[in-house]
Design goal:
2 copies of one chain form a homodimer. Chain A is of the alpha+beta class. Chain A folds into 2 domains: about 160 residues, D-amino Acid Aminotransferase, Chain A, domain 1 (2-Layer Sandwich), CATH 3.30.470.10; about 170 residues, D-amino Acid Aminotransferase, subunit A, domain 2 (D-amino Acid Aminotransferase, Chain A, domain 2, Alpha-Beta Barrel), CATH 3.20.10. Chain A contains 7 helices and 19 strands. In chain A, the strands form 2 sheets. In chain A, strands 1, 2, 3, 5, 6, 7, 8, 9 and 19 form a 9-stranded mixed sheet that branches. In chain A, strands 10-11-12-13-16-17 form a 6-stranded mixed barrel, surrounded by 4 helices. In chain A, a hairpin with a 3-residue loop joins strand 16 and strand 17. In chain A, helix 2 packs across helix 3. Chains A and B meet through strand 4, helix 1, strand 8, strand 9 and helix 4 of A and strand 4, helix 1, strand 8, strand 9 and helix 4 of B. The complex binds pyridoxal-5'-phosphate (2 copies). Chains A, B: It comes from Metabacillus niabensis.
């Protein structure tokens, strides 16, 4: 076992109200930190009391956003086991992001071991009411205090934990989504396939415009032709057209979602036709007019599944399945949530017990 | 005058060796800080001793890179006056970046006043040897500790100062530049025209590849067709073809450089033909083959002007003006540097005396 120093807090925080957790607002008593220096590599893994990060004002992360992150969840089962959902996939993806952002690769085994120990230390923070979970946020920031535009030579890898509520209070609920026709999230050759802050900073404006129009999320089209569907806010997107479930193929500017991958595997196992391919917004509009557009949903760690009740594209309002949750959407949600929280058998070996 | 509290340090740092300053490695004794809260707006402007920034690990800047910055310089004239070069343009551009990044606008007058007071406090840090100056880095970071992907409700606006050396030790020197054919810095509808960290994070990889090939900088083509010239690293670009100076028009994905604008004004004043228009990499290659490509240079606050001695595009090596500094390039450099450091008359009212 890899040696991780642990310094326990002497000043435990009060736990938040489990009925009012929201998302990413409360944090547990401890955090994990790992340092990188050019001559030492990644070193000094440690669990310490949750505390502020103190950085020189010239630290590169503040200026050039050299940073990557991940998001995954731990669940408490009814019989009080703690399950992590596909954590190796997250650390693998973190290293893919690292490569794009010129950040040195982390040791994925060390990260997983550290995560397990951290969650174990803060185990009593994992909420148990239905739909709640412990959200885990690993992230890396460039810390050297130097304003030259070049890759940093010092980094910190940090993991923090946040008990989160059910994304939608009354179970899943169809959302209304605006298809963005001006702003762009990612382009070929850009950073769209990496989980890096700049993608999210760049998406805020579209999100703000959608909100003003009364929409909950933005659907992003490709950055080159503004024709092909890419993804939604922090979710991948799926459409059911004429009985076949279609999701945009991973083209280099879409984040390879782990929920997306799980959904594809679930659909295959259930013998429902599923295609990963390029799909234009026009094809969606046409399918809608032909009555062939049966369901649409987003997938991501935070909400697991968000059924899409309405898509707005220019002047066209596309109402999907009467703004109700589709059958396949509901089945996928029930199945995945069941596997994640341990109430269904995990045929895929996706979950890891602490 | 706007009231800015000032707390002076009791522990002055040692000044660095003026012959070995480099860029953005040393910082002065003080910094300026201004806070933003939703209910209070921007408030509490203050000059304090240079010190670390302490932030919750969940602060939005670490995760979603909601941040903008600026870069400008102060010069010490031979008769010991302190000149700021077009600082209002920088604060104006900061607010343009703010708009794109959903950051509340700052009061440009307050920022300028704060900058003057800060530079005055650290006046003895302004280096005086030829080519040196005081680099000023204003920046804004999103500070609220919340992991939801949405615009922050708390920000800090900070200014730090760094005495910097001449970008090239022996005066200006032609650089070799690789034209990037795979990675993309910015796309239409993206954040290219804003000075925000994500653009720089995304550029690191191209920069690293160029370096490995022995090139000093990357020339970015447009994100849509990878055909039109955009800009170089942290500089705008100019070509002299058949007696006319051409620079890419501001198209929404190029940073509107203040040095760029100054060069255009200087060229017009000198009655040298100058065009802002779309220019493809093929046009450059053709001009080279026809013997019409006379000079090329980058412009930016850090280096002022970088003559370009070589451009590499796919298998083509374009040697410009025998890898020597062109006449117009040298004239522009001498003129602008002269205005900036007060040795030439400032016909344009670009400089502000402290
Ligand atoms: C941009 C983006 N797309 C898609 C996803 C979904 O990925 P995952 O299913 O791994 O959470 C996320 C993250 O949650 C995201 O940030
Ligand atoms: C991407 C980029 N382009 C161009 C420039 C040049 O702008 P300015 O002349 O205002 O320094 C900069 C900044 O210095 C930059 O970061």
């Amino acid at each position: 076992m890899i040696e991780i120093k642990t310094e326990l807090t002497t000043n435990k925080k009060q736990k938040p109200d489990l009925n009012n957790l929201g998302f990413g607002r409360f944090f547990t008593d401890h955090m994990f930190v790992l340092d990188y220096k050019e001559d030492k590599g990644w070193h000094d893994p440690r669990i310490i009391p949750y505390q502020p990060i103190s950085l020189d004002p010239a630290a590169k992360v503040f200026h050039y956003s050299q940073t990557v992150f991940e998001g995954l969840k731990a669940y408490l089962t009814v019989d009080k086991r703690v399950l992590l959902f596909r954590p190796e996939s997250n650390f693998k993806r973190l290293n893919v992001s690292n490569e794009r952002l010129c950040i040195p690769a982390i040791n994925e085994e060390l990260a997983l071991e550290a995560l397990k120990q951290l969650v174990a230390v803060d185990r009593d923070w994992i909420p148990s009411t239905p739909g709640t979970s412990l959200y885990i946020r690993p992230f890396i920031i460039a810390t050297d205090p130097c304003l030259g535009v070049s890759s940093a030579k010092q980094f910190q890898f940090i993991m923090i934990l946040s008990p989160v509520g059910s994304y939608y209070k009354d179970g899943i609920k169809p959302v209304r989504i605006l298809v963005e026709d001006y702003y762009v999230r990612a382009a070929p050759g850009g950073t769209g396939a990496a989980k890096t802050g700049g993608n999210y900073a760049s998406s805020l404006k579209g999100q703000e415009m959608a909100s003003k129009d009364g929409y909950e999320q933005t659907l992003w089209l490709d950055g080159k032709e503004k024709r092909y569907v890419e993804e939604v806010g922090s979710m991948n997107i799926f459409f059911k057209i004429n009985g076949t479930v279609i999701t945009p193929a991973l083209n280099g500017s879409i984040l390879p979602g782990i929920t997306r991958d799980s959904m594809i595997q679930l659909l295959k196992a259930k013998k429902i036709a599923v295609e990963e391919r390029r799909i234009s917004i026009n094809e969606i509009v046409e399918a809608y007019h032909n009555g062939a557009l049966e369901e649409a949903f987003g997938t991501g760690t935070a909400a697991v599944i968000s059924p899409i009740g309405e898509l707005k594209w220019l002047d066209e309002k596309i109402i999907i399945n009467n703004s109700e949750i589709g059958e396949v959407t509901q089945m996928l949600y029930d199945t995945l949530i069941g596997i994640q929280n341990g109430s269904l058998k995990d045929e895929f070996s996706w979950t890891i017990m602490l």
